[in-house]
Amino acid sequence: MLTDKDIQKMKGVFPTKEDLNQALSNRVIKEMEIFATKEDLEKFVTKDEFRKAISGLHSAIDAYAKKADAYFQEMVMLAHKVDRLEKWVQQLAKKVGMELEP
Length: 102
What we know:
Elements: H1 4-11, H2 17-25, H3 38-44, H4 47-96
């Protein structure tokens, strides 16, 4: 947990909102172009592009989930088949008088 003392130590390292506003008003920072604004980010990626990207991710995840589900179902079926075959082998061994070791 951060204490007030820890926060006071960080004030000397990281600029505060007031520090940035003062630097801008004193023209220490000549242009705002070094900061990304909300408008800059909106120009970078439009909402439609973002929606398409998210939709693509959803489609990929859905396709993977379907493949995983089919694989798990196949593994369950295979396990049942192996159990059935093992039971038959045990029955055959009993009929021919052979003892199978575990």
